[in-house]
Structure to design on (383 residues):
């Protein structure tokens, strides 16, 4: 009788296994057939002895053992996993064997279908006619470049006489007859034939440039020695001598200039009257320095604008118009420019600010010119 858990051989019927200590069912206690009981062997006795010794050592343990639980039992999931692994390994082995068989079969089929290599017999080349060979050698020698040619650039085309054909006409005729007879075809060489060098120089044709068409010049009319030619009439309008226009101006008298200046000052005061009225209405004190500065600045500004605009636009102020006076440029006799008019106004106002001492220069000057006339190159004349 053997234990269903550990497989140990039991000599007597008992509920507990002497080797592993497992509890057996009552059904398993029944006697089982012992295979080969008629042929006991020494190995079985040895194994049974070992198992009994192990059972004795295990029974001596003091661990608590639960009934129906075996120590060496394998879980179900592990058994299933092992079966699957074995199936996969068997399938891969079968596939590898099939692939190896197919590869061997393909190699065997390929070796059967490949044709065997055979050596072909060498083709026999027909012998070349000696006359044709001699003619070909002569032609090759004729085309070989000469070693006595000039090293520089050829300037003309030279043709060398072929004395060989003249010396041996019979040989050339024989070679021609031999070439006319049909000969077996020679194997053509697939290589590219070599280029043969010759000593002939190509002379380029000169390019003839077309001549430009002749330019026809228009006939020109030339004046001879006739001085009365009508073509010379324009010379009559050219002056033969240079005339200098010397203009002399009559300077205005000093009394007229002084009176016109007084009238201009009255006009400037009339233009600045609104500013004076503004100061009076605001009850400002004239003793205040700021009020005096404001009034003087307004008076000078209005005077500058009045004198500059009137002189630049009409050449005269309102006072000069009353006494028939005019301001002109001393060089051209025309109305002064804007720069000259502004310069006259500034210098005139500065002269008035100096209490009129600068205006005394007019009594000393021979032409009765004031400082603002000299600096701006203007003059006051009587019209």
């Amino acid at each position: 009788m053997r234990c269903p858990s550990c497989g140990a051989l039991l000599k007597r019927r008992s509920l507990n296994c002497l080797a592993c200590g497992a509890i057996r069912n009552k059904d398993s206690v029944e006697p089982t057939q012992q295979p080969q009981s008629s042929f006991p062997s020494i190995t079985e006795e040895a194994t049974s002895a070992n198992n009994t010794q192990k059972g004795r050592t295990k029974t001596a343990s003091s661990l608590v053992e639960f009934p129906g639980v075996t120590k060496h039992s394998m879980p179900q999931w592990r058994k299933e996993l092992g079966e699957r692994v074995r199936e996969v390994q068997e399938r891969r082995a079968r596939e590898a064997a099939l692939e190896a068989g197919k590869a061997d079969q393909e190699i065997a089929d390929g070796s059967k279908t490949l044709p065997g290599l055979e050596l072909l017999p060498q083709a026999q080349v027909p012998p070349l006619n000696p006359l044709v060979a001699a003619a070909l050698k002569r032609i090759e020698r004729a085309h070989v470049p000469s070693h006595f040619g000039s090293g520089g650039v050829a300037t003309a085309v030279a043709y060398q006489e072929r004395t060989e054909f003249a010396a041996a006409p019979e040989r050339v005729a024989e070679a021609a007859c031999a070439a006319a007879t049909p000969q077996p075809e020679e194997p053509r060489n697939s290589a590219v034939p070599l280029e043969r060098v010759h000593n002939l120089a190509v002379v380029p044709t000169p390019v003839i440039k077309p001549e430009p068409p002749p330019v026809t010049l228009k006939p020109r009319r030339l004046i001879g020695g006739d001085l009365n030619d009508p073509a010379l009439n324009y010379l009559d309008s050219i002056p033969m001598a240079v005339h200098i226009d010397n203009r002399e101006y009559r300077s205005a008298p000093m009394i007229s200039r002084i009176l016109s200046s007084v009238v201009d000052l009255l006009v400037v005061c009339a233009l600045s009257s609104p500013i004076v009225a503004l100061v009076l209405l605001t009850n400002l004190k004239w003793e205040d320095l700021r009020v005096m500065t404001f009034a003087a600045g307004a008076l000078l500004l209005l005077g500058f604008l009045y004198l500059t605009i009137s002189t630049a636009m009409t050449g005269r102020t309102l006072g000069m118009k009353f006494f028939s006076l005019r301001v002109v440029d001393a060089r051209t006799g025309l109305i002064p420019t804007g720069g000259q008019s502004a310069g006259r106004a500034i210098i005139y106002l500065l002269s008035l600010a100096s209490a009129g001492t600068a205006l005394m220069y007019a009594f000393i000057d021979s032409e009765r010119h004031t400082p603002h006339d000299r600096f701006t190159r203007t003059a006051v004349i009587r019209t």
